[in-house]
Design a protein that fits this description.
alpha/beta; Rossmann fold; two-stranded antiparallel ribbon; 10 strands; 27% helix; globular
């Protein structure tokens, strides 16, 4: 079984409620708890690249994600990412034409909020990353999409094919 690299970049999946400020923000990643909740037995290598809302992600941060994928010794990669600009990041990764399977996933509801989709989406990404051929994919809502054949439907709160 090959190792899967898991790059953490933030997004709604990692947001937590700050009761003092009365808002969602970043304190620390929840990825280890999510992995534990998913009960996976996969060999994972995790690395926190950043904790940022994807709407606030800079071009420099996006290049950091692309560089991490390029330099990664593993051929299976999952990236947790905010859903609003996930496709934009996937496009930049795809432009590198890496001989790797790269799956971006996230959540519409933060992991720490009741009825979050974080565990389900990450678990699906684990399965897709192991079974799909080389390429760049988005895994949300129990489905996978090629990076260039997907859009976030903000009215429905799901990802759909173009």
């Amino acid at each position: 079984m090959s190792t899967i690299s898991l790059f953490i970049t933030g997004g709604t999946l990692d947001k937590q409620y700050n009761e003092i400020k009365g808002e969602l923000g970043f304190i620390k990643t929840s990825i280890q708890e999510i992995i534990k909740d998913s009960r996976t037995t996969l060999d994972l290598s995790t690395k926190e690249l950043m904790l940022v809302d994807s709407l606030e992600m800079t071009d420099t941060q996006r290049k950091e994600i692309v560089a991490a994928c390029s330099s990664c010794k593993h051929h299976k990669i999952i990236i947790t990412h905010g859903t609003d600009t996930m496709v934009k990041t996937a496009k930049e990764i795809a432009a590198k034409k890496l001989a790797k399977t790269i799956v971006l996933t996230g959540a519409m509801i933060p992991y720490r909020v009741h009825k979050s989709d974080a565990v389900f989406n990450l678990s699906a990404a684990f399965a897709f990353c192991q079974t799909l051929e080389n390429g760049v994919y988005i895994a949300m809502n129990g489905r996978y999409f090629l990076w260039n054949d997907v859009i976030k439907n903000k009215e429905l709160g799901i990802f759909v094919p173009l």
